[in-house]
């Protein structure tokens, strides 16, 4: 700084450094210390699941293995404590950095599961890609709720008026029609064509997936029998849980050179994730 070399046994205060001062960094390479190129800023890591599905992530080499495990949980629902990450036949430790294992860009990790598992009540996330079906189910649930609103309004205003009673019956029929379509989609498409054992990493996820679909069917059936908004609320909640299996979750943050020390912890757990199921 200012042409003066800073000694490592001195403090910054010894050099009267002011706020905003610039310190020049020079790399000294000795004869016995060959130059080692720095690791890449980011690298793509592939994680192969037991089901054969491979997920891709982009990480920095200074992030820890636990960061990968957190990202895997976001994508698949598998708790980090249930995960065993294997590279080259060696189990990776959560507190180690990716650079410790000398991973290269494009490296593939094998994900195995510990016993006993802890995600028995969770649904597997992002297992299927059916955006059109998700949109259709949302529309049908909205129509059911709208029908209930109209039914309650017409019932209060009818007062024996046949025209209003006719409209009320029409809305009841519309509500029942959309509930039947939801049940049909769950049974004939989802449970018959999508929920197969080979598509899930373990039996727990398979059972949880079946239960989530059945809960939606049961909730839709309850909306057929009632104009109570509580049944519509239950249907919305069950659909929200179901959609976790049909929607790919993406999280994007940046860990750049301007990050402060107070943000380091959040940067450690927040990574740039590029998720693609193959």
From TrEMBL:
GO terms for molecular function: nickel cation binding; superoxide dismutase activity. Residues 43-118 form the Ubiquitin-like domain. SMART domains: UBQ (SM00213). Gene3D superfamilies: Nickel-containing superoxide dismutase, Phosphatidylinositol 3-kinase Catalytic Subunit, Chain A, domain 1. This is Ubiquitin-like domain-containing protein.
